[in-house]
């Protein structure tokens, strides 16, 4: 049976799309409605009469700064993870030195350690370096990635030995071989991993909550949580407007890099 003509496939796909889109639609229409009505549970499925006034309110406050903090942190984490992982995998695959396999397995073992296990010693190291309540402290401990190193290692292992020998005979040194051969071959994988790591950095909550108690270093995720007041009435339309604004940068990154993202996930021949 042709899956394009299978009605069950289309129904399941449509149901899945509704499950994903429904919360976004509720947030969008909620940002245009009266906060008091939302607090009473009278959230309409249609846009309200408030229009986009909630967006003007949040953009006049600290939300733009929180978006910039999150953007800077996400870019630093994504780029830092890719740079360190590429160099680590390159060294493990193409260099011969004592303890090479041991170094790789030590990196691999860290995959078994959840973030919660490492967070207290990591905080202690950041405190010792004086990076608490600094922008550097937000992203620096998060730029090492065993997963990315493992993925790049698998990509580099697939590079034919003949290509390595040809580059060596052509007089290419390690840096030239990395720049002219390895990185172009891995471009699609780098792009796909960048998208995943950017979203990972953008959604960080636990670590920024611990390392940055200064409100000026609040990320957009933490800002949304703080907007949900406990003792006073919550401006729910502003919360939902901020949530919609927080979705825009990841969506833009995915749309701009969609072709490379799909190629990096589906490409099998190197």
Which descriptors would you attach to this protein?
0% strand; single chain; MetI-like fold
Secondary-structure map:
Blueprint: H1 7-30, H2 35-39, H3 53-59, H4 63-94, H5 100-109, H6 115-128, H7 135-139, H8 146-157, H9 161-169, H10 174-185, H11 187-202, H12 206-211, H13 220-227, H14 236-256, H15 258-266
Structure description:
The chain has a single domain, classed as MetI-like fold (Orthogonal Bundle), CATH 1.10.3720. It contains 15 helices and no strands. Helix content is 70%, strand content 0%. Helix 3 (53-59) packs across helix 14, helix 4 (63-94) crosses helix 11 and helix 11 (187-202) crosses helix 15. With 270 residues, it is mainly α.
């Amino acid at each position: 049976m042709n899956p394009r003509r299978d009605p069950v496939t289309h129904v399941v796909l449509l149901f899945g799309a509704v499950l994903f889109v429904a919360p976004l639609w509720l947030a969008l229409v909620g940002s245009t409605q009266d906060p008091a009505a939302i607090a009473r549970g009278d959230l309409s499925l249609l846009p309200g009469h408030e229009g986009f006034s909630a967006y003007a309110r949040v953009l006049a406050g600290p939300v733009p700064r929180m978006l910039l903090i999150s953007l800077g942190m996400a870019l630093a984490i994504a780029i830092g993870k890719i740079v360190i992982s590429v160099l680590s995998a390159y060294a493990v695959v193409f260099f011969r030195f004592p303890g090479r396999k041991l170094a790789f397995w030590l990196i691999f073992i860290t995959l078994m350690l959840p973030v919660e296990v490492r967070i207290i010693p990591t905080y202690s190291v950041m405190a010792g370096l004086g990076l608490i309540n600094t922008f550097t402290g937000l992203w620096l401990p998060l730029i090492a990635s065993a997963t990315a190193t493992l993925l790049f290692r698998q990509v580099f292992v697939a590079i034919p030995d003949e290509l390595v020998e040809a580059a060596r005979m052509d007089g290419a040194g390690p840096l030239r071989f990395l720049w002219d051969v390895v990185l172009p071959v891995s471009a699609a994988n780098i792009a796909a991993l960048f998208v995943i790591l950017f979203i990972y950095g953008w959604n960080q909550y636990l670590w920024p909550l611990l390392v940055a108690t200064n409100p000026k270093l609040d990320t957009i995720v933490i800002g949304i949580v703080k907007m949900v007041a406990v003792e006073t009435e919550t401006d729910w339309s502003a919360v939902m407007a901020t949530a919609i604004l927080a979705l825009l940068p990841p969506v833009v990154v995915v749309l701009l890099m969609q072709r490379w993202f799909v190629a990096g996930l589906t490409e099998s021949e190197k």
